[in-house]
Amino acid sequence: MTLAVCVRCGESKVGAFTPCARCGLDPAAHGTDRELQAKSLLLTDRFFPGGELESIGRKLRAGEAVSYDAVQLAQAVEELKTQKLPVVSKATPGCSILGWALVGLVIALVVGVLLMWRLKGP
Hints:
Layout (H helix, E strand, L loop, with lengths): L2 E3 L6 E3 L19 H9 L7 H12 L8 H12 L11 H28 L2
Antiparallel strand pairs: 1-2
Helix pairs in contact: 1-3
């Protein structure tokens, strides 16, 4: 689980690309704005330990500007540009859970049929 801070308002959230509950900013919806997405990625506990991330959030909530490391920002923008897959899946987490549940059900049914067939014998 990645802890993050909204780049617009400084609200804490889970995941760099999740919409902000406070201001509604959705970095994933800005598909071509790689700089916004890169800044969202940088403002996570992956790049800043908890205390530093909280401090950045407080600065943003107070309306203060936050400076980004130019090298890290450029690298993150470049990595996001070269992504072969979408940064964020358009499927909701519920769809993923349902999909895997169906796969598990199919496997259980196949195993059950094979066991019944084996137990029945010739």
